[in-house]
Write a structure and sequence with these properties.
Strand order of the largest sheet: 1-2-3
Strand content: 5-15%
Largest sheet: 3 strands, parallel
Number of helices: 3
Order of helices and strands: EHEEHH
Number of strands: 3
Shape: globular
Oligomer: single chain
Length: 80
Amino acid sequence: MIIGGTKVGLIGNVIQNTENYTQIIVKDYLEDPKKDDHIIICDTSFERMQTIWNESDLFLFLEGGLGTLAEIISFIEENR
């Protein structure tokens, strides 16, 4: 499972019970800067989105904020 956000909220609840995930996050939003095998750190939001698209086969959007809305719109635009 690829997650594109932080480990809080709905996605935090989803990944609590799994070890098989990769978090792709912009370095500015990283909660814990220590090395973690489950994290890919990106410099920009654009790099993060491109990495998510390249690493994922299926997309599931959970309730979130403006970032989630931006991802949904980008997904629609990329697939029309």
